[in-house]
């Protein structure tokens, strides 16, 4: 029994030993860990609640901005002075949203996985909105309290430039702040964004880019127009109207030339010449073209006025047009402006229809077809066609000079035309040309930088016909790699071009001989011959270039850009394709193709592909 008792006591002792308290150090560490964990959870809950509440409040402010921006834009476009109150309310919302999403707690939450990038993007949109509304638009509208767009409408052929001059400085400041806001959104990494945040960033980026472009154009206009309108003395301008029915790189042949005079705001049409008459009698080039230009276009742009815009660089074409016009007429102009019938249709949306010298009505709906197709059915004599073209252009200009229609609609149409590079301008004044530089109106060659790789895709009719009216282009771009890890590595970018001749199957006999050229230049009637010049992004290496019919290409270079030239001969109802692939180690996240503007106003002549969001884009 004693042994049993001893065993029992021993067992009890063991039991007592096994249930004794933890060492003090271990107990303290465990309590600290529990306290830290509990505190972290409480902090996390507090941060979540803080961010959640402030996020909801900021979202409400941004929602009010989204709901009111349309009314503000409408008021700003129609009557800047009346837009002040609306913009002030929106600016207050933008400032509040920015404050709610910029405190230290919010910034701490931005570092968390998954939700962090969403919060960061949301905060960036709020900050950019504050910059755009409070620092760009509101100060501009305040400065424009005494300005009305109707004051810029011609009265008896004269435009008062006083209001424009007063807006030059505030418009320049607004443009800079607007560009800053657009850059803020451009810096957002879209890859981790999801759902409503991703869609909101995309939508905001589009709106902010439009605002930046619009304010940039306004800034340039307020600095340029007073001088262009003869504020400091009489000016002469050559207005070149391109004919997109016969393609040239920047649109079409220079079919009509109009001499425009300005003096102290007064505008008048002083004379009209056809491209044919300006080319007659020229046997030698009016200037010595650089060797790289001749290597691609020979000397044709300097011998034929119609071929001026074969060279896709209006900073070169403008001076060339000026010199050719001077040698033929003795008039030395201060600048050159180019436009096409699509621009005339935009102007007609503002002015309303006009009556032509032959009694025909020209409207926004029929202008392009009438000027680029119907005229050749109606008039067989080229001289009569030129007269009709000149008369139509003059009628539209006179309607504008009479102050007809809506000023806002007029500005909207001109802005659209400028974005599509259908309106181009060169100034002989170096200071004015500096203001134009970098804008779509300058019409210079595409420039590739660290953010965007840019192609140039230019069409030229090769058959002396007007068959370009029937050829429909489709251009697309595609990246081969688009994840963030692929940046600054060797990547490939593909450009695909398809051209379709949509002319009727019996075009050889059903279309006028002036349209088909009737074989005069070696092309069978009804066939569209297109010479395609593809300008590669600067610094990018050519990987491959192929065509659907297996034909090859020639190479050249212009201003440091490699140029590939392909030729297509398209029978009616047929098409031809080509694909060009380039490669480079680049940080570029965007790609663009600058394409010849055609007679089809629905085709945007700028194709874009953003590598971080959608790997391809299409024009067509």
């Amino acid at each position: 029994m004693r042994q049993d008792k001893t065993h029992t006591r021993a067992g009890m002792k063991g039991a007592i030993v096994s249930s004794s308290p933890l060492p003090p150090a271990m107990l303290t560490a465990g309590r600290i860990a529990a306290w830290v964990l509990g505190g972290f959870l409480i902090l996390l809950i507090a941060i979540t609640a803080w961010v959640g509440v402030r996020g909801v409040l900021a979202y409400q402010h941004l929602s009010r901005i989204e709901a009111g921006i349309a009314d503000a834009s409408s008021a700003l476009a129609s009557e800047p002075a009346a837009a002040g109150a609306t913009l002030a309310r929106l600016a207050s919302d933008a400032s509040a949203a920015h404050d709610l999403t910029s405190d230290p707690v919010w910034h701490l939450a931005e570092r968390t996985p998954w939700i962090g990038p969403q919060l960061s993007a949301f905060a960036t949109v709020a900050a950019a909105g504050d910059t755009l509304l409070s620092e760009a638009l509101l100060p501009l509208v305040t400065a424009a309290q005494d300005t009305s767009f109707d004051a810029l409408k011609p009265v008896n052929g004269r435009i008062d430039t006083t209001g424009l001059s007063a807006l030059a400085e505030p418009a320049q400041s607004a443009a800079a702040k607007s560009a800053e806001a657009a850059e803020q959104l451009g810096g957002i990494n879209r890859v981790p964004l999801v759902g409503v945040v991703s869609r909101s960033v995309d939508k905001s980026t589009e709106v902010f880019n439009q605002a930046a472009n619009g304010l940039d154009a306004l800034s340039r206009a307020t600095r340029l127009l007073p001088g262009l309108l003869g504020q400091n003395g009489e000016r002469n301008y050559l207005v070149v109207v391109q004919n997109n029915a016969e393609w040239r790189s920047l649109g079409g042949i220079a079919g009509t030339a109009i001499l425009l005079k300005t003096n102290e705001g007064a505008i008048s049409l002083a004379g009209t010449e056809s491209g044919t008459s300006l080319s007659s009698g020229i046997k030698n080039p009016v200037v010595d073209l650089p060797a790289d230009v001749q290597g691609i276009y020979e000397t044709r742009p300097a011998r034929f006025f119609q071929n001026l815009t074969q060279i896709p660089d209006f900073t070169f074409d403008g001076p060339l047009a000026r010199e050719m016009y001077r040698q033929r007429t003795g008039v030395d102009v201060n600048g050159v402006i180019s436009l096409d019938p699509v621009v005339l249709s935009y102007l007609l949306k503002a002015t309303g229809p006009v009556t032509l010298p032959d009694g025909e009505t020209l409207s926004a709906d029929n202008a392009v077809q009438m000027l680029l197709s119907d005229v050749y059915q109606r008039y067989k004599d080229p001289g009569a066609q030129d007269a009709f073209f000149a008369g139509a252009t003059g009628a539209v200009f006179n309607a504008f000079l009479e102050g007809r229609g809506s000023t806002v609609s007029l500005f909207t149409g001109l802005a659209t035309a400028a974005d599509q590079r259908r309106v181009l301008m060169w100034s002989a004044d170096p200071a004015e040309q500096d203001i134009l530089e970098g804008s779509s109106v300058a019409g210079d060659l595409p420039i590739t930088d660290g953010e965007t790789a840019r192609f140039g895709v230019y069409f030229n009719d090769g058959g002396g016909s007007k068959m370009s009216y029937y050829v429909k282009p489709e251009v697309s771009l595609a990246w081969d790699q688009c994840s963030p890890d692929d940046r600054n590595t060797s990547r490939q970018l593909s450009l695909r071009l398809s051209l379709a001749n949509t002319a009727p199957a019996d075009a050889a006999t059903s279309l006028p001989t002036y349209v088909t050229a009737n074989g005069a230049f070696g092309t069978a009637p009804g066939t569209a011959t297109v010479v395609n010049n593809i300008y590669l992004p600067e610094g990018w290496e050519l990987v491959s270039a192929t065509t659907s019919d297996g034909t090859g290409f020639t190479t050249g270079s212009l201003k440091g850009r490699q140029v590939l030239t392909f030729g297509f001969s398209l029978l009616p109802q047929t098409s031809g394709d080509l694909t060009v692939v380039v490669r480079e180690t680049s940080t570029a996240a965007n790609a663009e193709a600058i394409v010849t503007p055609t007679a089809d106003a629905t085709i945007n002549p700028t194709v874009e592909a953003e590598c971080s969001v959608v790997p391809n884009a299409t024009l067509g």
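The mean pLDDT is 86. The longest strand covers residues 489-501.
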